[in-house]
Amino acid sequence: MYEGGRGVTQDYVHAYKWYDLGARRNEKTGEQLRDELEKRMTPAQVAEAQRMTKEWMAEGP
To answer: Where are the domains of the chain?
Structure first.
């Protein structure tokens, strides 16, 4: 959704966050999508996405 901008503004950082959350739950698709997306992101974008992932995990369910 966020990666392709379907129904929302395209946002690689948010897409990475959701893929990373899936990967952390041992979802292979999330891991593959995250790793492919990371190749198109800047180091700053990846760092921000990783920060958002950690924040969500700390506050999440």
So the answer is: 12-59
Which of 43, 44, 53, 42 minimizes the C-alpha distance to 16? Answer: 53
DSSP string of 18-49, one letter each residue:
HHHHHHHTT-HHHHHHHHHHHTTS-HHHHHHH
Tell me how far apart the alpha carbons of residues 38 and 29 are, in angstroms, rounded to a whole number.
14
pTM: 0.85
Average pLDDT, 10 consecutive residues per value, the chain (61 residues): 75 93 90 95 97 91 62
What is the residue whose two structure tokens read 């198109």? 40
In contact, 30 and 41? CB cutoff 8 Å: no
Dihedral over Cα of 7, 8, 11, 13: its sign:
negative
